[in-house]
Design goal:
The complex is a heterodimer of chains A (348) and B (354). Chain A has 348 residues and is an alpha/beta fold. In chain A, 38% of the residues lie in helices and 18% in strands. Chain A has eleven helices and 14 strands. The chains are: A alpha/beta (348), B alpha/beta (354).
């Protein structure tokens, strides 16, 4: 089959969604299909740009190419999943979140501050409500995203999990004296919450952060917090690391910290499980909660510095328990039977 | 101001899904050259479908609606537009390096190989394209064209001036030469605009037992079948080889071993094949209406420029076949000409960011 994977992207930003799109194309090719990725650039501000981009996507024509039919379009991200096609399947990575659950979340909100914000929010919601059902089938990357789609748009979607990249290459080593937090550095991942928690830990915990900041501003805010809370010597800021180095950091850590705001899915959780490491997440972190079993494969804290600090202290002080939770996490991953073959079969 | 990571540069182009040609190689080569020069560069490729004609207007509008001025609050320092309609995407610091306009609205209008004029709304769509190009291309800070030929068309049809800016083919340093064997080589997508059919017709009229190797993927399977049937009909199928898609390495080997390269397209914009032949020290046979190649091939010094008729092309093929030593000398002269033109990415990057 000729299959186009369509997504939206912010130039110069590469995160989980971009990796997933590449991996999906590879999996489709491996299954013998001709697959290509179409990524439409997206800029979400000022709000009036959003309807422009919705319209731009609606104006594109992916029905055929040089007279040859394109058999299937797989839509991933807003607004690219709105591109029309008679044989479209949506595998929803997420909707435009600030028009939904992040509308009035101080950490991520933006739309709400503009005079035309409410009108644009309504336009986004209407487009999703009316146009997502054009697809022949709708899947979501996880239960969390499916639940939101049900709640806000009244549309049912089946969760369809995907494995992180290089699944077979993760491994486990004896735990060292650090927590690992790999993620893009940005408000919704809450690096700043972890920095505040560090300052409240009773143990001399240490956190290694890896990942690029979305913008210099995001990084500057973290650096300023570290300075004010005087935790410079308990933070290591690694920036962008290679995949190999990342797996090494997973393998040698005591545990993984991943406390985002209502994450859609979150490869970090799965990668931690593949590395047999316990995960500390928060009760409002979304996706990770589908995988972390509190007290068995990690700890689910409240999203306060105090509660997070307690969870970090608990793992730091109870290393043997931490190792056992990590093993249980690995066993849980194996039980879930997450594979690209299954994803491809379902989407086609 | 550029930070330590250089400028943030986006390359805007279009792409036809599942078709890979020179345009993709061009965008990727530019992207790599910008990165090597210390900049951050990415390609934005908008899907494009040009039929029925009203879809062209939709996609022009789609491009005008995109906003590449900044990302997450950080400015995009430069937008480099390559192909229609992606070069219409607005940007305060845009440079256009025109690969080609939508040729069906210009030099290919009413051409037998094109059909825009046969649609009831063809005239209107053509007018809209010309108006958009004429009004919006000059919004760029600078306008370059990938060849003199493309610059000439822009001037002729839109009255907009552009400076020609040449760039090297992919892996230019890997081309080499070997003693000529008994075949002429025609590497190109199998497409009516490249005129593989004309070469078959010519082959039927050669006096000498000239052989031609074709390589390249078929954009349209029907045209490839037509060419193969033509060779059967003229009884020259035994002097033709269809190699299909070949690896880059195999392609360079074929260039190295050929007696000469055939490249007779219709008004080609630029044409890597001419340059690749010159890099491999081989003479080029092209046609008087082939466009881009004529900026490089010097008649009877680095190749032959024939009239686009089977007879004239057959005479040129016989000519190379008959005097192999002269063919070798023309090939060498072609390489010298390439080296004298200073076609390199460093120069391109400097011009585009000036």
């Amino acid at each position: 089959m000729k299959v186009l994977v369509v997504t939206s992207g912010v130039p110069f930003i590469r995160g989980g969604a971009e990796i997933l799109a590449d991996n999906l194309c590879q999996a489709l090719s491996a299954a013998g299909h001709a697959a290509e990725l179409i990524s439409i650039p997206f800029k979400h501000y000022p709000p009036s740009r959003i309807p422009d981009h919705i319209l731009a996507c609606r104006l594109l024509d992916l029905t055929e190419t040089c007279g040859v039919r394109i058999d299937r379009v797989i839509g991933l991200k807003f607004p690219a999943y709105l591109i029309p096609h008679p044989n479209k399947v949506i595998w929803l990575l997420h909707q435009h979140r600030t028009a939904y659950e992040l509308w009035n979340q101080p950490i991520a909100e933006d739309l709400i501050h503009y005079p035309d914000g409410p009108a644009v929010r309504e336009a986004i919601r209407q487009a999703d409500r009316e146009l997502i059902p054009e697809a022949k089938a709708v899947y979501a990357q996880c239960q969390n995203v499916a639940n939101r789609l049900r709640r806000y748009s009244g549309i049912d979607a089946e969760p369809l999990y995907s494995p992180p990249a290089h699944v077979g290459l993760f491994y486990n080593r004896t735990a060292g004296d650090y927590f690992f937090f790999p993620s893009r550095v940005t408000g919704v991942k809450r690096q700043s919450l972890v920095i505040e928690a560090l300052a409240r830990c009773r143990e001399r915990t240490l956190v290694r952060f890896a990942g690029e900041p979305d913008s210099p501003r995001e990084l500057a805010a973290c650096v300023e917090a570290i300075r004010q809370l005087k935790v410079e010597d308990r933070v290591e800021w690694l920036g962008l690391v290679s995949e190999e180095r990342k797996r090494d950091l997973y393998a040698n850590c005591l545990g993984v910290i991943f406390p985002p705001v209502d994450e859609d899915y979150g490869y970090v959780t799965l990668e931690a499980m593949l590395s047999s490491k316990p995960v500390i997440t928060c009760s409002d972190s979304g996706g990770p909660l589908e995988f972390v079993v509190d007290g068995q494969t990690g700890l689910v804290a409240d999203s306060t510095p105090e509660s997070l600090a307690r969870a970090m202290d608990a793992l730091w002080a109870g290393r043997r328990g931490a190792a056992a939770m990590g093993e249980a996490g690995w066993a849980r991953y194996a039980d879930l039977k997450i594979s690209w073959e299954h994803v491809v079969e379902t989407l086609l | 101001m550029p930070n330590k990571h250089g400028l943030r540069i986006l390359i805007a182009t279009v792409r036809v899904p599942f078709v890979n040609g020179g345009a993709e190689i061009h965008a990727e080569g530019l992207c790599r050259a910008l990165r090597e020069a210390g900049h951050q560069a990415e390609i934005i490729a908008i899907p494009f479908k040009w039929y029925p004609p009203e879809r062209i207007l939709d996609q022009m509008l789609a491009c005008r609606l995109l906003d590449l001025s900044e990302t997450v609050g950080v400015a995009v320092d430069r937008l480099i537009g390559l192909k229609f309609p992606a070069y219409l995407i607005p940007h305060p610091r845009k440079v256009i390096w025109l690969l080609h306009q939508h040729r069906q609205a210009y030099d290919l209008w009413k051409h037998p190989l094109d059909d825009l004029d046969r649609y009831p709304n063809g005239d209107e769509v053509r007018a809209a394209i010309v108006r958009a190009d004429t009004e919006l291309i000059p919004q760029a800070l600078h306008v370059f064209a990938n060849s003199r030929n493309v610059a000439g068309r822009l001037e002729k049809f839109c009255g907009v001036q552009a400076a020609p800016l040449y760039h090297p083919p992919r892996d230019a340093t890997l081309f080499h030469t070997l003693p000529a064997e008994d075949f002429l080589y025609f590497p190109s997508r199998i497409n009516p605009l490249k005129r593989q059919d004309l070469v078959i017709e010519a082959l039927a009229q050669t006096r000498l037992p000239v052989k031609v190797y074709f390589s390249g993927s078929a954009d349209e399977a029907t045209f490839e079948r037509k060419c193969a049937a033509l060779a059967q009909k003229h009884g020259c199928a035994n002097r033709v080889q269809w190699l299909g898609t070949v690896s880059e390495e195999k392609k360079r080997d074929l260039y190295a071993r050929t007696l000469g390269v055939l490249f007779p397209p219709i008004d080609e914009d630029y044409g890597y094949i001419t340059l690749e032949a010159m890099l491999a020290q081989k003479p080029v046979i092209t046609c008087a209406d082939s466009g881009g190649p004529l900026e490089f091939v010097i008649e009877r010094q680095t190749g032959i420029v024939a009239e686009p008729t089977p007879e004239a092309l057959a005479a040129a093929m016989d000519n190379l076949w008959a005097d192999r030593e002269r063919a070798r000398q023309w090939g060498e002269a072609g390489r010298q000409r390439y080296d004298s033109l200073h076609i390199d990415w460093g120069h391109v990057v400097e011009k585009l960011l000036a």
